[in-house]
Amino acid sequence: MSKTQVLLSKETERTRIEVLGYEQLAGSDDIGSSEILYFLQQSGSRLKQVKVTLNNSSVLLESGALHFMKGHIDVQNNAGGVGGMLKKFISSSLTGESMFKPVYSGSGEIYLEPSFGHYLLLDLKNEQLVADKGMFYACESTISVGVERMKNLSSAIAGGEGLFQTKLAGSGLCVLSSPVPDDEITKIQLNKEKLQVDGNFALLRRGNIQYTVEKSSKSIFGSLTSGEGLLQTFTGTGEVWVAPTQSVYEQLKAHRLGSLIKAGGSSNTKTT
Questions:
Q1: Structural domains in the chain?
Q2: Which residues, including other chains, have CB under 8 Å from residue 265's CB and lie 6 or more apart?
Q3: For residue 142, which of 39, 43, 170, 235 sits 20 to 30 Å off, Cα-Cα?
Q4: What confidence tens digit (pLDDT) does each residue in 46-87 have?
């Protein structure tokens, strides 16, 4: 295996989860992929992989996340009968995550699919966390994965988050996928306070935090003249994680890597 470095690591009594970063990829035998890899490395992007070490414990994974594993590990898909399957189907449809999340139990090492994406590693202490739908990646089986429904339809539509988000509750380690690196996330502590965000770059909240959407001014005319309009509003005591750089990356998505490669050449020859 290529040399890796531990970027993030947390452990409980029987489980350790690490986010590994590959030091450098040498490239494959395909020139096209090597060209793309060059631009990724120039930008500082690193291939990452989540590693889970079990010691008579169990972990819940997003379906399809497994890459390989070794040791004495059993895999179970708990459908829970017709009622359980219906509940899982509804939850899957609402949160954008897989219908079945397999449980891996025993002792050994589990490696998840490598990716150039970013991961957040959290340790929940008998608490609840609400994250954007689709962020869930893995967690200890001591954590329940469910659905958080917005308090009202207007907040769901106006806030841009949809009517449902992913809710994690309990104690243990969890891994979430993130649109930005961990060091570009601002973690804001609230103590019976209000936080208002212009945009949908709030990734998650934990603690006793209520979410609504409010006008930036008490009057419609004031909202229009302020140029802000509606604001995501978080009220209470706890923590809200926001990604200020997310909107910049979303704008950059319009400039595909292929067009960047083409622009750098001296001809209009298409590269693949």
A1: 4-263 (3.60.160.10)
A2: 271
A3: 235
A4: 999 999 999 999 999 999 999 999 999 999 986 544 344 445
Q: What's the pTM value of the predicted model, to 2 decimals?
A: 0.79
Tokens describing residue 139:
């967690």
Buried b vs exposed e over 122-145: b needs ≥16 C-beta within 10 Å?
bebeebbbbbbbebbbbbbbbbeb
Between strands 103-112 and 48-61, the pairing is: antiparallel
Round to the nearest angstrom and report the end-to-end CA distance of the chain.
Answer: 28
At 172-219, the pLDDT tens digits run 999 999 999 999 999 999 999 999 999 889 999 999 999 988 887 655
Separation CA 178–CA 136 (nearest Å): 9
Which two structure tokens, joined as six digits, stand for 193? 């306070």
| Tokens (6 digits) for 158 | 């106006």
Q: What is the 3-state secondary structure (H, E, C) of 16-28?
A: EEEEEEECCCCCC
CA 115 to chain centre: 13
Q: Is 143 helix (H, G, I), strand (E, B) or coil?
A: strand
CA gap 76, 102 in Å, rounded: 6
Q: Are 102 and 139 in contact (CB under 8 A)?
A: no
Hey, what are 34's tokens?
């090597």
